[in-house]
Amino acid sequence: MASRFFAELRASQVEAACGPSSVAVLPVGAIEQHGPHLPLATDALVAEAVSKEVVATHGEDLDLWLLPTISYGRSVEHTWAAGTLSLSTSTFAATLNDIGRSVAAAGIRRLVLVNGHGGNVSEIQTALRDLRLAYGLLTFAVNVFLPESHDPAWAASESGLGIHGGAAETSLVLHLRPDLVDLGSAQRRIPAQMADNVHARFGGSVSFGWLADDFGSEGYLGDPTLASAEAGARGFKSLVGTLGDQLAEIARFDFPDSARTR
Q1: Which DSSP string corresponds to the chain?
Q2: In the chain, which stretches have pLDDT less than 70?
Q3: For the whole model, what pTM was predicted?
Q4: What are the record keywords, sorted (predicted)?
């Protein structure tokens, strides 16, 4: 079949098109503030674009089926800002459960959540095991985040704090949808007191609860002034290549002796 978009199948085609070897690819994002320079849909935009590119390239070889994007996520850290559309924890969990149940009913055995929003990570990890238990699915999650050290254009310049609306995300959107970026409103936003911490920091050994406006009223972290469409193109290519490799392993992954998926 020419299209690997699951939603473009007719109901009469599903049984013949999808089966135990199929991999359902579900982009998951968020609609939330990303400072004055990036669109609300940044996370959903990146997750969907990377997923589409990989399914277009490897869909036939790996039997991939692209599901419609879940654009809404769990964005409680951003609900103080106008425009953020956040699901509650229970609603997000129920949504993932219902989609997983429906994927299993379609005869598909593997479900991959391609996540573009850090606030979704813990709930997605919980859902992987719940879906495994409830429906016997083989469940996986990958995150499409660019590490700060990825590109020489910004490597080490954000002190590990470019996690939301920084150089990486801004570069990706400049590559994918430059019409949605207002780079003139971007400024460097690096909280110096946290940059010196060893443990109580993002990626450190101490976790902490936070809201985006804890770091300033504009609600972003990083240095988007370093962003460029060229860096975004390099980052997008890297994300696509990594996801392709990940899906190749997922397509052949199985447990050695599981009664649940025999």
Answers
A1: ----BGGGS-HHHHHHH--TT-EEEEEE--B--BTTTB-TTHHHHHHHHHHHHHHHHHHHHHTEEEPPPB--B--GGGTTSTT-BB--HHHHHHHHHHHHHHHHHTT--EEEEEE--GGGHHHHHHHHHHHHHHH--EEEEEE----GGG-TTTTTTSTT---BSSHHHHHHHHHH-GGG--GGG---B--HHHHT-SSSSTTSSS-----GGGG-TT--BB-GGG--HHHHHHHHHHHHHHHHHHHHHHHH---SS-GGG-
A2: 1-2, 258-262
A3: 0.95
A4: Hydrolase, Metal-binding, Zinc
- If you search the block for the tokens 């996801």, which residue do you land on? 243
Query: Helix crossing, 167-176 with 229-252: angle to 10°?
Result: 90
**Residue 124 · residue 141 · CB < 8 Å:** yes
User: pLDDT tens digits, residue range 34-68?
Assistant: 999 999 999 999 999 999 999 999 999 999 999 99
Six token digits for residue 120: 């979704």
* The two three-digit tokens of residue 164, written as one number: 């939301």
